[in-house]
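Next comes this protein.

***
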Amino acid sequence: MSGAPDRTPSTDHLRTRVNRHADRVTVVLSGDLDRLTGPTVVDVVDRIRERPVRRIDIDLAGVDFLDLGGLRALLRVHHRSSRDGILLVVHNPRHYVRWLLDVTGAAEVLLDAHQAPPAEPALSWINRPAEPADTGNAAYVRLLQDRIVRADDRDRLADEREKLLNERQRRLSDHQQWEDIREDLADQRERDLEQRELDE
């Protein structure tokens, strides 16, 4: 019996939906699965594993972009699930995602053995020069290059944001230390004045 989809966290770049069917759970992902959004997938699967489950299927049909950070997240949830005796299988990777799984060797770990192999060698479509009849692949390569650049930009922005937050935290800490020193000095002056009055 199919249950209602669970409400799951989403980010600006990745959306998740969880469907429960008795002891089998399907996680449907759409958007970009990368270094920034990978922890969302890990959190979702960790919550699923808190309840009895025999199998977890992760549907990547809606994933437009996957980088090594996203792949590490998939391998992490696969390892944790296997350790708990739960079968975790990835399904429906799109062409570029399947290519990345193949060239990294992750396909052998994450994909069901019955899933069809790629229609052509993994690198042939990306290495082939674009021809008039092959504009679809050329456009796809340009899209991937653009997505890689945007992912790198997001990584740089995340690093800069982290540096700014660390600097702000350091300044707040320094400010608090100065406030503590001022408060201690004020207390000491007040004690000195009280003692002077007593002595007089």
The CA atoms of residues 60 and 93 lie 5 Å apart. The beta strands are 14-21, 24-33, 55-66, 87-91.
